[in-house]
């Protein structure tokens, strides 16, 4: 991997003022966010969209359905985060560089199912950020109308809605008991979405930075 | 903001949806006369009261669905048997 | 003060002074209250500008005065009292331009004709183009207008800036302004005054205006209209019934079984606190879905396109104000500190081609003057004149011949969407 890392081949949808760094062939911000409310660019993560029957064996093999998430411990998708992003629609997020393996994994699931289903690698076509901190519900309530109370969106829940008028997949994925959300949207709206989130977060002291080495592929602590 | 209830996603701001219109059946394009086709395109019942209609949840599940809405006060109820 | 049988007193500067000095007693009512007759020659349903103008011209031009105008609420309670009062004739089709031009001409001397100050202010009307395709439509409209003798031309950003100094015509905006269709005879009017003026004149000719009188049924015998029934249990006979109910018009046509290509959509508008005059023309932007004018009192009146779904509800929405504010500030950033005072909605009877439906129907004696959508206030005078002729002669006059109900099944649409979807 290191030879690719020396010469970046990809940029994420987001750019922020300040230094940049190159990891896994991706150029991202080198800023480090330490405050209580942080926005991290997870653009380099592998992103696959899967479509198939909402209630068949593809669903059973992926292990989750619309509105929920799962982190498979074994099997072809071990280590990835599988999000039920719509009825019969999934989003698979994995570590940078694991696209080939994950794609092959989902393809084998589809082949075994015999169902009419598809998988597409949209890694470079989407933006992905993680928003972490106790104040995230306050911040998001300014730009998203969905009620984020535990009762409605508990840890591990997912929904798609309008966030700052951008159609966004929102995944609640708490970090060590601290509120945290993944936000995923079309690449061309990514910078706008991130800027809107930062703007909405200024009063809560939001900081922007890359994930730390303590985070796993999905920005979740190991 | 008016809320509309999507059968997949639940109640959402109406601005997340696209209004498709009254649910009606399309004449067969193979056999319909131009007059029949234009009636289908242009004419509406436009009732003041309950109407069965189609909406599209563009900012959410991206699915079409049927709902019954009262056009006088915008009250809603799930569509009965949507065809 | 009863004036039964008396001549309607004229309004004049002299009568104003006299009343100001307390010498004239109370101002008389502009129109009278009557007990409904059992039969009329013509029953007009709907007391908006269209119904009242039709009554006025039937009496004035054709001597037909045994008329009732039935209004379920108060006159002007529909679109006629809720619109943003823009008058213009810079449409897209020759049929449309000719028709609306006749209306503007009638409006120009309406105050004198009705002896009622309707405050028509021909301050000019400007439709902005933010991209090449709308600039092309503006040129198209300007040429069609000129051929019909209507004053319209395309102007450049420099000329726009001269007319509206507060407008951001720089190239750095999100939707840069490339030019505009400028229409000097367009302007705004006092909409209530038009309604009251026609009502007063019709009343003076002996027309009965019945408010709080809702029509709940129409009687038809052998495919011929014979009369109407009202919510208070009356039956009123009439060989001619005219549907002038705009947003409610399909409900009326349903009573006689005439299907119509009409859907009812709410249209919202809003008004700010008054400020000193700074905006002389009406400014419309189709791309930004907004338009603005300043009233004589100094308020800014804003409008937009119809709500995104069909409804009979006239409740305002936050969505509308949010979108509106964003778009208006795009055009005139200096307005960011202005406060909105009110927002409201009215019902619009939208047709597939953004042109009206006027004239005869398959049911004898049942006439329609509907499909006024978001643009019908300006058409009040010409429609009244044409409908009166249509009723008196039993056949639509040339000026409305293109607007018949039969055009939809026959596929002869008069497409005005490009000139009427935002700039009403
Ligand atoms: C916010 C807004 C802005 C607009 N801006 C413009 C503009 O700038 N320029 C322009 O030209 N047009 C504009 N319009 C459109 C214009 O207002 C209408 O097209 C026009 O007023 C229609 O007039 P009308 O007389 O046909 O109908 P209305 O004025 O709506 O009158 C219809 C009447 O029928 C009555 N009625 C309904 N049912 C019954 C019944 N069963 N029995 C008895 N009476 C009944 C109603 O109470 C109502 O008073 C606007 C409309 C709105 C809502
Ligand atoms: Zn949905």
Describe the structure.
- The complex is a heterotrimer of chains A (222), B (83) and C (424).
- With 222 residues, chain A is α+β, with helices and mostly antiparallel strands.
- Chain A has 2 domains: 102 residues, Probable tRNA modification gtpase trme, domain 1 (Gyrase A, domain 2, 2-Layer Sandwich); 79 residues, Alpha-Beta Plaits, CATH 3.30.70.1400.
- Chain A has 5 helices and 14 strands.
- Chain A has a 6-stranded mixed β-sheet with strand order 11-12-13-10-4-14, covered by helices on one side. In chain A, strands 6-7-8-5-9 form a 5-stranded antiparallel β-sheet, with helices on one face.
- In chain A, a hairpin with a 7-residue loop joins strand 12 and strand 13.
- The longest helix of chain A is centred in the middle third of the chain and has 15 residues.
- The model of chain A has no long low-confidence stretch (mean pLDDT 92).
- Chain B has a single domain, classed as Folate-binding superfamily (Folate-binding fold, 2-Layer Sandwich), CATH 3.30.2270.
- Chain B is built from 1 helix and 6 strands.
- In chain B, the strands form 2 sheets. Chain B has a 4-stranded antiparallel β-sheet with strand order 3-4-5-6, with no helix packed on it. Chain B has a two-stranded antiparallel sheet with strand order 1-2.
- Chain B is globular, with a radius of gyration of 14 Å.
- Chain C folds into 2 domains: 223 residues, FAD/NAD(P)-binding domain (3-Layer(bba) Sandwich), CATH 3.50.50.60; 149 residues, D-Amino Acid Oxidase, Chain A, domain 2, CATH 3.30.9.
- Chain C is built from 12 helices and 19 strands.
- An 8-stranded mixed β-sheet of chain C has the order 5-6-4-14-15-16-13-17. Chain C has a 6-stranded mixed β-sheet with strand order 8-2-1-12-19-18, sandwiched between helices. Chain C has a 3-stranded antiparallel β-sheet with strand order 9-10-11.
- In chain C, helix 2 runs parallel beside helix 7.
- The longest helix of chain C has 16 residues.
- Chains in contact: A-B, B-C.
- At the A-B interface, strand 11 of A face loops of B.
- The structure holds flavin-adenine dinucleotide and zinc ion.
- Flavin-adenine dinucleotide binds next to helix 2, strand 13 and strand 17 of chain C.
